[in-house]
Protein: Crossover junction endodeoxyribonuclease RuvC
Amino acid sequence: MRVLGVDPGLTRCGVGVVEGVAGRPLTMLGVGVVRTPADAELGQRLVAVEQGIEQWLDEHRPEFVAVERVFSQHNVRTVMGTAQASAVAMLCAARRGIPVALHTPSEVKAAVTGSGRADKAQVGAMVTRLLRLAAPPKPADAADALALAICHIWRAPAQNRLQQAVALHAAGAPSTSKGRRG
Amino acid sequence: MRVLGVDPGLTRCGVGVVEGVAGRPLTMLGVGVVRTPADAELGQRLVAVEQGIEQWLDEHRPEFVAVERVFSQHNVRTVMGTAQASAVAMLCAARRGIPVALHTPSEVKAAVTGSGRADKAQVGAMVTRLLRLAAPPKPADAADALALAICHIWRAPAQNRLQQAVALHAAGAPSTSKGRRG
Structure:
């Protein structure tokens, strides 16, 4: 499974591609940051994010895109830019028919460190270890994007089983007898 | 000046096209709502908003797009969808090189009713009168989109003078002697 993780932002949008399956060593295929100038017009910044995401999709052809779920409880100013950048990332993926998954920051932290309240350094250290990198990816947005992709790969089997169960239930089939254990 | 007003939203995105200049009777060229199903995936809904906005841009070729400025103080759930839909509208316009302007809800209300705290009915009544319509556009999102376009046409001269002054100042020219009164 090849996943593009996106840590959305207007000034710095982290992007990272990870390939692998749960329970096996993972491979990083690419990591980077899409930047847009803070003094550019908002519309132009969104166009620049779109172009950046499109380049990553073109180059790596991911099967899934995992985007950080944005909450509006946080800083009022930054959250709007984050929501707008995440909308562009989701739009780019959905236009190509690539499934988009949203994961909360605490889900991502819990997936890679075991604690939903881990700090940036801890996430960076675990991403470095799990992907067998020489050094933590910089800036933190890039490391967070890789963590999102890892989180998606590890959570995907459970999510897929859940989706299968829901689909079976919706189709009127007995959902208990056909469950496959992964 | 032909302006597409966009009242952003995922479930209902109001769109309205108004042509005219400040101080002259205005003409409505079109009004409607881009709808997306609430049970569809977020990415698919954003793609549907994009397709809807593109159709309006194709059909009416506006020179400006006016979008409601989103604040995150309001309802936490709806504000994210509003921010995401507005990002798509801004993206569509900016991709075509169409200037995007943001106006706050109170700027729009003040422009068309004289009061920044006017209610929906008052905005609808004034839009109906100013565009000489037979009845208020329904739903309210459609009327709000027209109000945004009207607001932009009426505020534009002042904004253009401000932009000219800033540009002159940035170029080092004396900004007072060259100001043109509109």
User: Anything to note?
Assistant: The two ends of chain B are 15 Å apart (CA to CA).
